[in-house]
Design goal:
The protein is an alpha+beta fold. The chain has helices at 3-10, 13-20, 24-31, 40-54, 59-71, 77-87, 89-138, 147-163, 171-178, 182-200, 281-287; strands spanning 203-208, 212-218, 224-229, 232-236, 240-245, 250-253, 258-260, 267-272, 275-279.
């Protein structure tokens, strides 16, 4: 084994963990060459981090791991995961169907309950005659060109509403009398606000053909999490995050473009408001408060 690996073995697992944040268990497995504990992507990712942090060349260690895989006819884990996921689909589909049925039943109950509650609240205020007139106004054909009749019926309904409040006009009554079309205006504004809010939602999706180790740091809370991605992953495009990828054989799709990093080594990125920026090793460490991970 190279001198660089011997230098690494002189360090304690606790020291390496504090600098690289690789778990002590994985560090000990690397130092003892327990290759059976790792898949290819995970092992190469950890070795890349060790090389960068300690300026080492651990190519001989990589070669030994590759020889171990060949001699033991190791099967790639993504294929195994794919098979296990497919086996669990029927059961997952059953629960999806149950949840959808529950949602439909709840929506039906709400739809049928809400109008009756609304009518029961308006009946004491308007009286039977006033309610009938309001309903007649609503029932007028919207395709009719007789706009004068619509305005007259609407004004009568508003006057009936004012009479049943004993002359005490509320703020809402005053607004209706001043502008009978205010409800339509407010509804239109709400629709516009909802459309603008929907356009602000940004989507970022990561695709990989080989299993990927992904480290995510939230730059607002500085909380970290690790993920193993086998095919694709949706990322939160509305915040600000630092990303470290175990390898660069990935594609990232944002709202306006597709990004790829055709390189086998570790990739450092910043995701901010739906935009992805590639960082150098030193830039990443500086933004991450002097730490790699």
């Amino acid at each position: 084994m190279s001198d660089d690996f011997d230098k690494l073995k002189l360090l304690k697992a606790e020291q390496i963990f504090e600098k690289t944040h690789i778990t002590k268990k994985n560090i000990n497995n690397i130092l003892s060459k327990s290759f059976e504990k790792f898949d290819k992507i995970q092992f190469n990712g950890f070795v890349s981090i060790l090389e960068r942090e300690y300026s080492l060349n651990l190519q001989e260690l990589r070669d030994e791991y590759q020889e171990y895989i060949i001699n033991n006819d190791a099967i790639s884990e993504p294929e195994l995961r794919s098979a296990s996921n497919n086996a669990g689909k029927p059961r997952g589909l059953f629960w999806v169907v149950i949840i959808v049925l529950i949602i439909i039943v709840v929506a039906w109950l709400i739809y049928n309950t809400y109008p009756s509650k609304q009518n029961s609240q308006m009946q004491p205020v308007l009286g039977l005659n006033a309610t009938a007139r309001l309903n007649n106004t609503t029932a007028i054909d919207t395709n009719s060109t007789n706009t004068t009749a619509i305005t007259a019926n609407t004004d009568k309904s508003i006057k009936i509403l004012a009479a049943h409040t004993n002359g005490k006009k509320s703020k809402i009554s005053n607004m209706l009398l001043a502008n009978p079309n205010i409800n339509k205006t407010l509804t239109h504004k709400n629709d516009i606000n909802a459309t603008v809010a929907a356009k602000k939602v940004k989507t970022v999706r990561l695709f990989t053909k080989a299993k990927l180790w992904l480290g995510i740091t939230n730059m607002k809370t500085w909380k970290q999490q690790q993920k193993i991605v086998t095919s694709s992953l949706d990322l939160n495009g509305t915040g600000k995050y630092l990303l470290i990828l175990g390898h660069g054989m990935v594609q990232i799709k944002t709202d306006d473009k597709n990004i790829s990093f055709p390189q086998p080594k570790t990739v450092f990125l910043m995701l901010k408001n739906g935009k992805v920026t590639q960082l150098t090793h030193s830039q990443f460490v500086k933004l991450n408060k002097g730490k790699l991970w």
